[in-house]
Amino acid sequence: MWKRTKEKKEEGRAGASPEDRGPGKGLRRAIVAGVKISCRRRWKRRAAEVLLMALVSVAMFFFGRYLSCNDLEVTFHHLSSPRVAAGTNTRLVVLSDLHNREFGPDNRDLTRQIAALKPDLIIMAGDMVNAWEDNLDPILNLCGDLLEIAPIYYGPGNHENYLFYEKGSDLEAQLLEKGVHVLVNRAESVTVNRTGFLIGGLTTAVDGYEEYGAEFIEEYEKSKDFKLLIAHYPSLYYEALADTQIDLGICGHFHGGLVRLPFVGGIYHGDTGFFPKYSGGMYRLPHSTIFVSRGMEDHSGFPRINNRPELAVIDINGRQETEFSR
Ligand SMILES: [Fe+2]
Predict the structure, then answer these.
(1) Residue 71, phi then psi, degrees to nearest 5
(2) I want to staple 255 with a disulfide (CB 3.0 to 4.6 A). Which of 65, 182, 295, 309 is the partner?
(3) Same domain, 278 and 229
(4) What's the total number of domains in the chain?
(5) Which residue range(s) make up the domain with 254?
(6) Which residues contact 231 (CB under 8 A, 6 or more apart)?
């Protein structure tokens, strides 16, 4: 028996390649087989991970799309200022980039939510309409309803500017007739809770700032009141307004960067490319504080992801700010 086994081993060695001969052959084969099994398992695990990631991405896309379409997010912010009368709080509700969208029939859901927030002032930071639409009823009806809650201060965006100056629309006249404070490179004073506010509206983008905005801002900056400036374009604060003393600037336009990543912020806007500097939230600048609304509608047909339509509340009082956005 021992002899036969030995002969078989010898036969095997005779037919084997030189590499297979010698001690350790079994071990090498075992290692090769083990490596093959391990590779197969790793490949299967990798495929399962890729499949899972694809499923999660698809689910997130549709979930984000759903949120973007239907679900308003009310965000709360505050800032303190020595210009605000001690022991008082003034509440702003900020809307921007509605683009004729309606939340509920005739914007009743939006109006109800704003009423529940009990604002002192309602701020509209531009692009509340679409330049290509002639029907002004959605914004006029909304303003009519909101004026029963609080005064409205309206700073035009690029879509209003197109209607005002290119299309010859009478939107500005109709808003003024309703009692909306439409601010076209001018400011109005108002006293709320014993605090004097000078609310300005700057309509120009960066390109036209020197021609249309610089003179107004030079005068505006001299005021000792709380300066609240509605300027649709956040990029004005990159340079043109970077050194301007503004107590609170309110902007829109970037739509939150459309897709928002945690700890990063908005990904994209056509004006600035990837990662716009101020894509949404409160920002402390060297000479001012600005709030950039994420807006309420998609942009150019591109969906908002992780970026719900925003209805912002800003309380201006003596409390200390705790956090600012990235
Ligand atoms: Fe917009």
Answers:
(1) -115, 105
(2) 295
(3) yes
(4) 2
(5) 72-317
(6) 155, 201, 202, 241, 249, 250, 251
Same domain (yes/no): 164, 18: no
Structure confidence by residue, pLDDT tens digits, 37-81: 777 888 888 888 888 888 877 776 666 655 555 689 999 999 999
Per-residue pLDDT, 305: 77
Global confidence as pTM: 0.77
Positions of the chain with pLDDT under 70: 1-25, 35, 60-70, 300, 319-326
- pLDDT at residue 158, rounded to an integer: 94
Structure tokens at 21: 């001969």
Q: Is residue 306 part of a domain?
A: yes
Helix and strand numbers (H, E) in the chain are 7, 16
Cα of 58 vs centre of ligand 1, distance in Å, is 27
Ligand 1 center from residue 62 Cα (angstroms): 23
Distance 98 CA to ligand 1 centre (A): 7
How far apart are the CA of 159 and the centre of ligand 1, in A? 7
Looking at residue 310, its pLDDT comes to: 95
- CA 97 to ligand 1 centroid distance, Å: 4
Whole-number Å distance, alpha carbon 143 to ligand 1 midpoint, is 18
The rounded Å distance from CA 299 to ligand 1 centre is 7
Please report whether residue 150 resides in a domain. yes
Q: Are residues 132 and 261 in the same domain?
A: yes
Distance from residue 89's CA to the centre of ligand 1 (Å): 30
Are 56 and 139 members of one domain? Answer: no
Ligand 1 centroid–CA 151 distance in Å is: 23
Shared-domain flag, residues 253 and 122: yes
Looking at residue 283, what is its pLDDT?
A: 94
Full DSSP string of 188-227: EEEEETTEEEEEEEE---STTIIIIIHHHHHHHTT--SEE
Nearest to 158 by CA among 241, 214, 96: 96
pLDDT at residue 24, rounded to an integer: 64
**How remote is the CA of residue 199 from the centroid of ligand 1, in Å?**
21
